[in-house]
């Protein structure tokens, strides 16, 4: 609530009565922080796993579950070991390794990285780069200049960013990479009169709606098509139509809120308060500097600042270019792929040869890209060596809160994996959709994948687990496998928009310093609209054949 200065002065001078002093202050509920929220979710999932029986499917040569082979098994963990899993979940969420033999995640095995350490190092390197770049004041001046040009056309920027991120998400799964863009857009959107929720929604919803409406994404549609035995282009027409419709709905919803906030700052769900002094980051300082910059003073860049901007543009452009699996997308290949773990989009033989210009970078290379760029900015700006090191360390420390959120999100998936309850959840899903009519099956296939997407935020992992079961069931329901793939990705993407296990959402909210409860309040009507459109569309497509 906002007060005029005169009202504040009057209230401060007004004497308080003895009755007022003696009355206890009313406690109002405050939604916990993202870290606390995820810690609570971790405990709730752990408790639920105590009552969900362990089970497993028989698997084929590729490791895919075989329909109808589910059976109960003895729990692989004693009660003491279960307690240990809860305690160690955050540690496993950082650098737990998945054993290819046991399927167990811990830090004492040899296997594939399961934890979120790659994402954490990446965002910490982004924080370092932004810290040292903002120290040169080049980004603030560039943002202020851009804000002056877009002062009456902020809606155009929101639309362009959301459509671009949605397109990248739809075609190559672009999502985690968006964590690097908050530091660029938060000051700019603030200068244009928008709150941080607008920035967070623009980035998160833009990319996630693209995941939901994936068209040729090798990490979701490619894997699902490979498991279902169809081509990646099968069913692409309804998916393209859904991409246009769902993206338009999402953009319209964000623009509606943005226009309301800009016209009336009091309508903001998160407010425009400055960060507490002990919680300020380089981004917060940039926002404050822009707020104090007169709008009628045209900012000017020095030669050094122009070089810093060139390095910034090169770093972010190279990041986008380097992670796109160009050969897999352009050749429309299907097969095993892993977005979060290895960022590999390999296709079954004969696999298309990678193009000569493909870099196939992922978190290790991206982290070093921004660390090298940080040092380069410091050298261009002629900073002392100790100042470069100090700014890099300060920027990395700014990202510790988002890092804690991500490790807790990863820990939840570890709990479900190690208790071997995922197959039991999958079996329940199989039972729910068996024997349904074509239209009902398509909607059910979307709905039953929602809880599974909460437990498995990786689209490639979700597809590899669910599609071998959904595909034969779709045949019995007389629904094409390509339609089933569309229904599956719609349910998966819808969940990712709000799932606390999705690092894109919880990490983005943590960086933007937007409460999870405020985001839920903002996004729930959009979820209802997206669900209605998606369910209606897949039901019609399935019924028409």
List keywords for this structure.
two-stranded antiparallel ribbon, 5 strands, 545 residues, mainly alpha, three-stranded antiparallel β-sheet, single chain, 23 helices, disordered N terminus, globular
Describe the structure.
Residues 1-21 have low confidence and may be disordered. By secondary structure, the protein is mainly α. It has a three-stranded antiparallel beta sheet with strand order 4-3-5. It is built from 23 helices and five strands. The chain has helices at 5-13, 18-22, 34-51, 79-95, 117-135, 138-149, 154-172, 182-191, 196-212, 218-228, 236-263, 282-291, 303-323, 326-330, 363-380, 385-398, 400-418, 422-433, 438-455, 459-476, 481-496, 503-512, 516-544, and strands spanning 55-56, 71-72, 97-98, 105-106, 112-113. The protein has one domain (53-271, 298-334, 358-544).
SSE diagram, text form:
Layout: H1 5-13, H2 18-22, H3 34-51, E1 55-56, E2 71-72, H4 79-95, E3 97-98, E4 105-106, E5 112-113, H5 117-135, H6 138-149, H7 154-172, H8 182-191, H9 196-212, H10 218-228, H11 236-263, H12 282-291, H13 303-323, H14 326-330, H15 363-380, H16 385-398, H17 400-418, H18 422-433, H19 438-455, H20 459-476, H21 481-496, H22 503-512, H23 516-544
Helix pairs in contact: 3-17, 4-17, 5-15, 5-16, 5-17, 6-8, 6-12, 7-9, 7-11, 8-9, 8-12, 9-11, 9-21, 9-22, 10-20, 10-21, 11-23, 13-15, 15-16, 17-22, 18-19, 19-20, 19-21, 19-23, 20-21, 21-23
Name the strands of the widest sheet in spatial order: 4-3-5
Largest sheet: 3 strands, antiparallel
| Estimated radius of gyration | 25 Å
What is the quaternary state of this protein? Answer: single chain
Question: Could you tell me how far the N terminus lies from the C terminus, measured between alpha carbons in angstroms?
Answer: 55 Å
- Count of structural domains: 1
Structure annotation, total helices: 23
Task: Bin the helical content.
Answer: 55-70%
Poorly predicted runs are: 1-21
Question: Strand fraction band?
Answer: under 5%
SS-derived structural category: mainly alpha
What is the 3D shape? globular
The arrangement of helices and strands along the chain is: HHHEEHEEEHHHHHHHHHHHHHHHHHHH
| Rounded average pLDDT | 85
Secondary structure: number of strands: 5
Membrane topology: Multi-pass membrane protein
Protein name: Putative membrane protein
Pfam families: DcuC
InterPro entries: C4_dicarb_anaerob_car-like, DASS-Related_Transporters
